[in-house]
Amino acid sequence: MRVDGVVFLDKPVGISSNAALQRARRACGADRAGHTGTLDPLASGMLPVVLGDAAKFSLALLDADKEYVAGVVLGSSTTTGDAEGDTVATLPVPPLDRAALETCLERFRGPIEQIPPMFSALKRDGRPLYAYARRGETVERPPRRITIRALELCDWRADALTLRIRCSKGTYIRTLAEDIGRALGCGAHLGSLRRTAVGPFGIELSVGLDALERATPEERSALIHPADTLLAGLPRVELDAAQSVRLQQGQAVAEDAAAALPAGTVRAYGPGGRFLGIAHRDGGCLRARRLVRTDSRDQALTSF
C-alpha cells in the first residue's frame, strides 16, 4: 500500500537530517520522502518528514516560522559557530544580570540583518559555502533580512545562556549566538540546539526515531498524519463527483460550479471527504495546482 502523509520526527543528536529521514522512510515503508528544514547533527527536535504525495505540499512548512531552545556558551568563539568547531578565541565574560542581558537581547528582536555563516549550504558560484570554509577560505556573504519574533531569556549562568527563539525561515541560530556574544563583548558559540516547533506544530506531536522503528504496523499508521495536515490553514471546499473528475483531469471547474468557493488557494475534497489536493480560484474558475495521485488511500484522507 502506498504511503502518503507526514511524520513529525523528534530527531536525536548525532545524526544528520538525511540519515534520520531515510530511517523514517524505511520504517514507514514509503517509496519516497523528504523533510521540511535541515537540522544539523548537533541539533535535536522537530523534523517533519513528508512521505509520498505529502511532499507536494511541504512548502507551507519550509516557509513557516521555527521555534528553538538554544544553549549559548559565552566567552569562547569557534570556527563553525557551534560546539563542533575548534576554539579560535577566548575572552572573559563580564558580570551579567537580567537587566543587562535583556538590554542586549532587545537589539536582536524584530526584523534584523544576519550574515550567513561560512559553514552553511548556501552557494557561491555554484559551490556550497562550507566547501570554501573547509579549505580555510572566507568569501563575502551579503546580509539577509530575517525576523526574530520572540527571544526569551529562560536561564543564565556566569558563562551560559538558555534562550527560546521564534524566528522566520532562513535564520541561523549559530550566527545569532555569535552576534549576541559579540554584543556582550566576550564572544560566544552555540552549545546546544533543540527545535521545538515548526509553524503551528509543536514538539508534543513528534515521535522518537527509535520508537517509530519499534512500532507495530498499526501503531506506525497512527503516527502518520494525513497529507492535508500541512494545509490546515487553507479554506476547505467540497466538490461533487463530476467536479472532482474534472479537477483531477486538469480541467477548470466552471464559474457556475465555483461561484460559492473562496478566492485564492483552497484545499479541495471529493465525495466522502477524499483529499484531492490544492486548487486556485481565478476568474470564477477553480483550477488544480497540486493533486494527489488518484489511487491515494487512507493516508491521504483528512482529519480536519
Write a brief structural summary.
The chain is an alpha+beta fold and 304 residues long. It has helices at residues 17-28, 59-62, 98-106, 129-134, 173-184, 209-214, 217-223, 241-248, 255-258; strands at residues 5-11, 33-35, 44-51, 66-74, 76-78, 87-90, 110-114, 123-124, 127-128, 144-157, 160-167, 188-198, 201-202, 207-208, 236-238, 264-269, 275-282, 285-291.
Low-confidence stretches: 296-304
What characterizes the major β-sheet? Answer: 10 strands, mixed
In CATH terms, the superfamily of the largest domain is Pseudouridine synthase
Q: First CA to last CA: what distance?
A: 23 Å
For the record, the CATH architecture of the largest domain stands as 2-Layer Sandwich
Helix content: 10-25%
**Order of SSEs, N→C?**
EHEEHEEEHEEEHEEHEEEHHEHHEEE
Determine the mean pLDDT: 89
How large is the count of helical segments? 9
Tally the structural domains: 3
The computed structural class is alpha+beta
DSSP summary, beta strand count: 18
Supply database-style keywords.
304 residues, alpha+beta, Pseudouridine synthase, 3 domains, four-stranded mixed β-sheet, 9 helices, 18 strands, 22% helix, elongated, disordered C terminus
Report on this structure:
With 304 residues, the protein is of the alpha+beta class. The chain has 3 domains: 5-64 and 200-226, Pseudouridine synthase; 66-195, Pseudouridine synthase; 234-300, Archaeosine Trna-guanine Transglycosylase, Chain: A, domain 4, CATH 2.30.130.10. It is built from 9 helices and 18 strands. It has helices spanning 17-28, 59-62, 98-106, 129-134, 173-184, 209-214, 217-223, 241-248, 255-258; strands at 5-11, 33-35, 44-51, 66-74, 76-78, 87-90, 110-114, 123-124, 127-128, 144-157, 160-167, 188-198, 201-202, 207-208, 236-238, 264-269, 275-282, 285-291. Strands 1, 2, 3, 4, 7, 10, 11, 12, 13 and 14 form a 10-stranded mixed β-sheet that branches. A 4-stranded mixed β-sheet has the order 15-16-17-18. It has a two-stranded antiparallel sheet with strand order 5-6. The radius of gyration is 23 Å and the shape is elongated. The relative contact order is 0.18.
